[in-house]
Design goal:
The chain is mainly α. It has one domain. It has 9 helices and 4 strands. The protein has a two-stranded antiparallel sheet. A two-stranded antiparallel ribbon has the order 3-4. Strand 1 and strand 2 form a beta hairpin. It is globular. The termini are close together. 36% of the residues are buried.
Protein backbone atom coordinates (compact mmCIF):
# COMPACT_ATOMS: atom_id res chain seq x y z
CA UNK A 1 0.00 0.00 0.00
CA UNK A 2 1.43 3.35 -1.03
CA UNK A 3 1.29 6.29 1.35
CA UNK A 4 1.35 9.93 0.28
CA UNK A 5 3.48 10.90 3.28
CA UNK A 6 6.67 9.40 4.59
CA UNK A 7 6.80 8.49 8.25
CA UNK A 8 9.68 7.43 10.44
CA UNK A 9 9.94 6.69 14.11
CA UNK A 10 7.90 3.52 14.01
CA UNK A 11 11.11 1.56 13.58
CA UNK A 12 13.02 3.18 16.47
CA UNK A 13 15.74 0.87 17.77
CA UNK A 14 17.00 1.42 21.32
CA UNK A 15 20.15 -0.65 20.73
CA UNK A 16 21.07 1.44 17.69
CA UNK A 17 20.36 4.69 19.55
CA UNK A 18 22.58 3.58 22.45
CA UNK A 19 25.35 2.49 20.06
CA UNK A 20 25.16 5.68 17.95
CA UNK A 21 25.26 7.94 21.02
CA UNK A 22 28.11 5.93 22.53
CA UNK A 23 29.99 6.16 19.23
CA UNK A 24 29.60 9.93 18.95
CA UNK A 25 30.46 10.53 22.62
CA UNK A 26 33.51 8.27 22.47
CA UNK A 27 34.76 10.10 19.36
CA UNK A 28 33.96 13.69 20.39
CA UNK A 29 33.40 13.85 24.18
CA UNK A 30 30.44 16.13 23.43
CA UNK A 31 27.48 16.74 25.71
CA UNK A 32 23.79 16.04 25.16
CA UNK A 33 22.67 18.76 22.74
CA UNK A 34 25.66 18.67 20.38
CA UNK A 35 25.32 14.86 20.26
CA UNK A 36 21.66 15.19 19.25
CA UNK A 37 22.65 17.61 16.48
CA UNK A 38 25.39 15.26 15.29
CA UNK A 39 22.90 12.38 15.26
CA UNK A 40 20.61 14.46 13.03
CA UNK A 41 23.46 15.15 10.62
CA UNK A 42 24.47 11.48 10.58
CA UNK A 43 20.86 10.47 9.92
CA UNK A 44 20.61 13.05 7.14
CA UNK A 45 23.82 11.67 5.60
CA UNK A 46 22.53 8.09 5.89
CA UNK A 47 19.15 8.97 4.42
CA UNK A 48 20.78 10.56 1.40
CA UNK A 49 23.21 7.70 0.76
CA UNK A 50 21.26 4.63 1.90
CA UNK A 51 17.59 5.63 2.06
CA UNK A 52 17.04 5.24 5.81
CA UNK A 53 17.81 6.81 9.16
CA UNK A 54 20.32 5.07 11.42
CA UNK A 55 18.18 4.87 14.56
CA UNK A 56 14.70 4.98 12.99
CA UNK A 57 13.63 8.02 15.00
CA UNK A 58 11.51 10.99 14.00
CA UNK A 59 12.82 14.54 14.31
CA UNK A 60 11.03 17.45 15.94
CA UNK A 61 11.89 21.06 15.08
CA UNK A 62 12.63 22.43 18.53
CA UNK A 63 13.60 26.05 19.18
CA UNK A 64 17.35 25.33 19.16
CA UNK A 65 17.40 22.72 16.41
CA UNK A 66 16.18 19.30 15.32
CA UNK A 67 15.75 16.73 18.10
CA UNK A 68 15.29 12.96 17.66
CA UNK A 69 12.10 12.50 19.68
CA UNK A 70 12.36 8.94 21.03
CA UNK A 71 16.12 9.23 21.54
CA UNK A 72 15.62 12.37 23.60
CA UNK A 73 12.91 10.65 25.66
CA UNK A 74 15.33 7.77 26.27
CA UNK A 75 18.02 10.21 27.40
CA UNK A 76 15.59 11.96 29.75
CA UNK A 77 14.99 8.54 31.32
CA UNK A 78 18.75 7.99 31.68
CA UNK A 79 19.08 11.46 33.25
CA UNK A 80 16.30 10.67 35.73
CA UNK A 81 13.65 13.01 34.31
CA UNK A 82 11.31 10.17 33.29
CA UNK A 83 10.26 7.20 35.38
CA UNK A 84 10.01 4.76 32.45
CA UNK A 85 11.21 4.27 28.89
CA UNK A 86 10.68 0.93 27.15
CA UNK A 87 14.17 -0.50 26.64
CA UNK A 88 15.78 2.35 28.55
CA UNK A 89 17.61 0.03 30.93
CA UNK A 90 20.01 -0.81 28.08
CA UNK A 91 20.88 2.88 27.83
CA UNK A 92 21.36 3.14 31.62
CA UNK A 93 23.78 0.22 31.45
CA UNK A 94 25.78 1.90 28.66
CA UNK A 95 26.09 5.45 29.98
CA UNK A 96 24.97 8.11 32.46
CA UNK A 97 23.94 11.69 31.72
CA UNK A 98 24.64 14.48 34.21
CA UNK A 99 21.63 16.75 34.87
CA UNK A 100 23.69 19.95 35.31
CA UNK A 101 26.47 19.63 32.74
CA UNK A 102 24.63 17.41 30.23
CA UNK A 103 27.87 15.42 29.91
CA UNK A 104 27.84 11.69 29.27
CA UNK A 105 29.80 9.11 31.25
CA UNK A 106 30.32 5.96 29.20
CA UNK A 107 30.53 2.72 31.19
CA UNK A 108 33.29 0.38 30.07
CA UNK A 109 34.10 -0.17 26.43
CA UNK A 110 31.09 0.81 24.29
CA UNK A 111 29.57 -1.81 22.01
CA UNK A 112 28.89 -0.76 18.44
CA UNK A 113 27.62 -4.17 17.28
CA UNK A 114 24.14 -2.82 16.54
CA UNK A 115 25.57 -0.43 13.94
CA UNK A 116 26.04 -1.41 10.31
CA UNK A 117 29.11 -0.40 8.30
CA UNK A 118 27.07 2.33 6.62
CA UNK A 119 25.84 3.60 10.02
CA UNK A 120 29.44 3.88 11.26
CA UNK A 121 30.49 5.55 8.00
CA UNK A 122 28.02 8.41 8.50
CA UNK A 123 28.61 8.72 12.25
CA UNK A 124 32.36 8.86 11.65
CA UNK A 125 31.94 11.49 8.96
CA UNK A 126 30.01 13.73 11.36
CA UNK A 127 32.48 13.10 14.20
CA UNK A 128 35.28 14.14 11.83
CA UNK A 129 33.38 17.29 10.85
CA UNK A 130 33.06 18.12 14.55
CA UNK A 131 36.81 17.58 15.06
CA UNK A 132 37.78 19.65 12.01
CA UNK A 133 35.23 22.46 12.10
CA UNK A 134 33.96 22.60 15.69
CA UNK A 135 30.66 22.62 17.53
CA UNK A 136 29.40 25.86 15.99
CA UNK A 137 29.68 24.32 12.53
CA UNK A 138 27.64 21.30 13.69
CA UNK A 139 25.02 23.57 15.24
CA UNK A 140 24.72 25.70 12.12
CA UNK A 141 24.65 22.69 9.79
CA UNK A 142 21.77 21.15 11.77
CA UNK A 143 19.76 24.35 11.36
CA UNK A 144 19.11 23.46 7.75
CA UNK A 145 16.26 24.27 5.37
CA UNK A 146 14.13 21.38 6.65
CA UNK A 147 14.37 22.66 10.24
CA UNK A 148 13.82 26.27 9.16
CA UNK A 149 10.69 25.36 7.15
CA UNK A 150 9.08 23.41 10.01
CA UNK A 151 6.87 24.99 12.66
CA UNK A 152 8.54 24.74 16.04
CA UNK A 153 7.56 21.71 18.13
CA UNK A 154 6.34 19.89 15.01
CA UNK A 155 7.73 16.84 13.24
CA UNK A 156 10.21 17.56 10.46
CA UNK A 157 8.91 15.80 7.36
CA UNK A 158 11.28 13.29 5.81
CA UNK A 159 10.36 14.87 2.47
CA UNK A 160 11.69 18.22 3.72
CA UNK A 161 14.98 16.61 4.71
CA UNK A 162 15.25 14.73 1.41
CA UNK A 163 14.37 17.87 -0.59
CA UNK A 164 17.80 19.24 0.35
CA UNK A 165 19.57 16.45 -1.57
CA UNK A 166 20.51 16.64 -5.25
CA UNK A 167 18.42 13.52 -5.93
CA UNK A 168 15.79 14.29 -3.27
CA UNK A 169 12.66 13.88 -5.43
CA UNK A 170 13.80 10.43 -6.62
CA UNK A 171 14.58 9.39 -3.05
CA UNK A 172 11.13 10.48 -1.87
CA UNK A 173 9.48 8.51 -4.71
CA UNK A 174 11.54 5.44 -3.81
CA UNK A 175 10.65 5.71 -0.13
CA UNK A 176 6.96 6.20 -0.87
CA UNK A 177 6.82 3.22 -3.17
CA UNK A 178 9.41 0.70 -1.92
CA UNK A 179 7.42 -2.33 -3.05
CA UNK A 180 5.66 -1.49 -6.31
CA UNK A 181 3.28 -4.22 -7.50
Amino acid sequence: MQSDRLTVGESFKVDKAVAAISYLVSRTAESLYPVLKMLYLADRCHLERYGRFIVGDRYVAMEKGPVPSRTYDMLKFVRGDRSFFDGGDAAKQAFALDRQTHKFSIYGVPSFEALSESDVECLEEVANLRAQKGSNFIRNASHDDAWKATTRNSDIAVEAIAAQFDDGPSLVQHLLNRHPN
